[in-house]
Amino acid sequence: KERKEPPGPKPLPLVGNLLTLDLTRPFDSLFQLSKTYGNVFQVFWGHKKMVVLVGYKTVKEALVNHAE
User: Fold this and answer.
1) Which residue among 8, 11, 33, 45 is least crowded, i.e. fewest CB within 10 A of its CB?
2) Quick one: 67 exposed, middle or buried, by C-beta within 10 A (0-12, 13-18, 19+)?
3) pTM of the model
4) Rounded to 5 degrees, what angle do the CA atoms 5, 7, 16 make?
5) What is the recorded membrane topology of this protein (predicted)?
6) Phi, psi for residue 43 in degrees, rounded to 5
7) Domain boundaries, position 59
């Protein structure tokens, strides 16, 4: 079964999305990205992919209904 990748900003080589994030206020930066990409999206911290879940309902659904 092929899985679809979450949406997110296009990463740059080596630095990923670090240049687009305010690292002094990472939660605010991620919340702003959620307004563009929705409650589930991905960002790259350097070469490491991070999937972000925004909101109680989204986290609960991911952990309870999709805990595979």
Assistant:
1) 45
2) exposed
3) 0.85
4) 90
5) Peripheral membrane protein
6) -135, 160
7) 18-65
Q: How many domains does the chain have?
A: 1
Asked if residue 36 is part of any domain, the answer here is: yes
Find, among 36, 42, 39, the residue nearest to 62 by Cα: 39
59 in Cβ contact with 53 (< 8 Å) = yes
Q: Which residues pair with 50 in a beta bridge?
A: 43
Amino acid at 62: A
Answer whether residue 31 is part of any domain: yes
Residue 11 lies in a domain: no
CB-count burial class (<10 Å; 0-12, 13-18, 19+) for 29 = middle
Element (H, E) at 41: strand 40-45
Each residue of 11-64: pLDDT tens digit? Answer: 999 999 999 999 999 999 999 999 999 999 999 999 999 999 999 999 999 899
3-class SS of residue 42: strand
